[in-house]
Write a structure and sequence with these properties.
Blueprint: E1 4-7, H1 13-23, H2 27-35, H3 41-48, H4 64-76, E2 80-85, H5 89-105, E3 109-112, H6 125-133, E4 136-142, H7 149-157, E5 161-165, E6 179-181, H8 197-212, H9 216-220, H10 223-232, H11 240-254, H12 258-266, H13 276-293, H14 296-303, H15 310-343, H16 346-349, E7 354-357, H17 366-377, E8 381-387, E9 390-396, H18 403-408, E10 414-419, E11 423-429, H19 433-447, E12 456-459, E13 461-462, H20 470-477, E14 491-498, E15 503-505, E16 511-518, E17 525-529, H21 536-539, E18 545-556, E19 559-571
Parallel strand pairs: 1-12, 2-3, 2-4, 4-5, 5-6, 7-8, 13-14, 17-19
Antiparallel strand pairs: 8-9, 9-11, 10-11, 14-16, 14-18, 15-16, 16-17, 18-19
Length: 575
């Protein structure tokens, strides 16, 4: 599929030159820093050497004092406390962190994760009824609850107080909770609005430590859970999230909690450095699989285990890994089936959007399938299945197209919906699907721009291959952790040639192992291009081409070399 390269404009030359000089780095690296808002030596020092002491005072968050006082009241009066969270990675890590920390200081605790299929997302009436049956007086809700106005009122009628710790955008009315912690509250002046749900839980525990003079080191022992939530929930890795992710990754690589350690082991990652990408693609999906296939509480059980339960931890991590394999099988089979539906139907192929419904598809993986189809066909995509007599689905969008507005334009056909610009969920009556398909497709046709239907690669800078040196890579590695707001830099080099030794590799010869040179330089640069084997013939024609890539380390036979990992190739017009 053809891709667009969107190359960022050069930053202020004076600023770039100054930064290159004071830091003794080349101009490309200095430009990358300026793109990320780093404009002087002190900002560069804070960027490259994050400090836990740079975290904001947790009491700057609206309602934080109220929340701490309410927990202390529960401690003083020996009340039963429930830690409640969503069934995804952010929710389960939030619950594991708050439960594990409070357990050091208090015994009358339990946790609750709603069932995805019986209760749905967020605070449920069933969960509140269960809390009442257990004699719970305080519920700390994590990664959910900021819109649960009626449910918190229902809980109050049963004598249950709530502390809400959320990071989603509130509605017009806040729940009548003992405290509502959410940096996105319009009346909250907390400096960082990008925390994950687990991040908000971390700030609550940080405030609780400081008010009661507890050791914060006990809280930092759980910071690996925060890093997992940040990576998996795809929040911007800037500000506090950068600091928390930086130290969370250190903990994950040196002495992870026993539950996370077991996941690392079963995922085959022991003995190598864990990155944000590893969390996104290997750790997070295994934690998520518990809620998708079985119960999210299984993930929390594993994450809160201690060293004394090593045999149990092994058994639980194997169960979660099995759930992940089931999830992968379902995801693979449904994706193949969906691909075939589109490929064999010319009308579907020519549409500007994809909407597919199958009553038998597994609800737990339709979001993943929607993402995969969006990647394959690059257009707004909705995958629907049947649940409790309704069609329920997940939607994903393409760069620059507001999916939420498109769904909202059909709201009269929906029972409910929610989400944001790039991802959403919706429920509708099955008999409304044909009308919804037509209305949604028409909205997309009327509002999407032609270029939005072509995948875009955001390029940070032009770069010469000769400039990819060990020093360049050492500094580039210090830009980590990479993620939203600080993505791994993508480069373009113009006018490169095959050295004569590039070849197709892999079982089906569908990948390329490259040796490249550029004009006016004798330096040979190694490269790898996955799924680009069909480009070999053109590469061998001895004409110049442009490459778009990231810089990677290649470990082979105990030796580390630098290589470029191609994201795309553009062949120049020879006419």
């Amino acid at each position: 599929m053809e891709k667009r390269w969107s190359i960022k404009p050069e930053s202020d030359p004076e600023m770039v030159n100054h930064l290159a000089e004071v830091l003794n780095i080349n101009h490309v690296l200095a430009n990358l820093l300026v793109q990320r808002g780093v404009t002087n030596y002190d900002e560069a020092k804070a960027f490259f050497r994050p400090k836990l002491t740079d975290l904001h005072n947790p009491f700057l968050m609206k309602d934080m004092e109220k929340a701490v006082h309410r927990i202390n009241k529960a401690f003083d009066q020996h009340e039963d406390i429930m830690i409640y969270g969503d069934y995804d990675v952010d929710g389960t890590t939030s619950v594991a962190l708050v439960y594990s920390f409070l357990k050091i200081h208090y015994e009358k605790l339990q946790f609750y994760i709603p069932n995805r299929y019986e209760e749905g997302y967020g605070i449920s009436y069933k969960g509140i009824d269960f809390a009442a049956e257990q004699g719970i007086k305080l519920v700390i809700a994590l990664d959910c609850g900021i819109k649960a106005v009626e449910k918190v009122d229902y809980a109050k009628e049963k004598g249950i107080d709530f502390i809400i710790c959320d990071h989603h955008t509130p509605g017009d009315e806040l729940p009548s909770a003992a405290a509502c912690l959410d940096p996105k509250r319009s009346d909250c002046h907390y400096p960082d609005k990008n925390l994950s749900g687990c991040g908000v839980g971390f700030k609550l525990m940080q405030a609780f430590c400081r008010f009661n003079d507890f050791k914060e080191s006990q809280l930092y022992d759980l910071i690996d859970l925060v890093a997992v939530s940040i990576a998996s929930d795809i929040v911007p890795i800037i500000g506090e999230n950068r600091i928390l992710a930086y130290y969370g990754l250190q903990k994950l690589n040196s002495s992870p909690g026993i539950g996370l350690k077991s996941i690392i082991k079963i995922a085959g990652m022991e003995g190598r450095e864990i990155t944000i990408s590893d969390i996104v693609f290997k750790i997070g999906p295994r934690i998520n699989a518990a809620g998708r296939i079985d119960a999210g509480s299984d993930a929390v059980e594993l994450l809160v285990c201690d060293q004394e339960n090593e045999h149990l931890v092994k058994e639980m991590s194997e169960n979660i890994d099995a759930s992940n394999e089931t999830r992968k099988d379902l995801d693979r089979s449904i994706t193949i089936e969906a691909h075939e539906l589109i490929a064999n139907n010319e009308e579907l192929l020519n549409k500007k959007s994809t909407i597919l419904f199958n009553a038998n598809w597994h609800k737990g993986v339709i979001g993943i399938v929607a993402s995969r189809l969006t990647e394959s066909f690059y257009r707004p995509t909705i995958i629907l299945t049947e649940s409790k007599g309704f069609a329920t689905g997940s939607a994903r969008s393409v760069e620059g197209f507001d999916l939420y507005k498109a769904i909202e334009s059909c709201s009269d056909l929906l029972e409910n919906f929610g989400g944001h610009m790039y991802a959403a969920g919706l429920t509708l009556k099955i008999e409304n699907i044909p009308l919804f398909k037509g209305r949604f497709e028409q909205y997309v046709e009327d509002n999407i721009q032609p270029e939005q239907l072509v995948p875009q690669i955001d390029v940070d800078s032009l770069l010469h291959l000769k400039d990819i040196t060990p020093k360049f890579n050492r500094i580039l590695k210090q830009f980590r952790p990479f993620g939203p707001g600080n993505m791994k830099p993508v480069f373009v080099t113009r006018n490169v040639f095959d050295y004569g030794t590039s070849k197709a590799v892999g079982k089906d010869k569908d990948h390329l192992k490259l040796e490249l040179i550029e004009e006016h330089s004798a330096a040979i640069k190694q490269g790898i291009a996955f799924s680009m084997g069909n480009a070999l013939k053109k590469i061998k024609e001895n004409s110049a081409f442009d490459i778009c890539y990231t810089v990677e380390e290649n470990f082979y036979n105990g030796i580390t070399t630098l290589q470029v990992m191609l994201k795309d190739i553009k062949f120049q017009d020879r006419g």
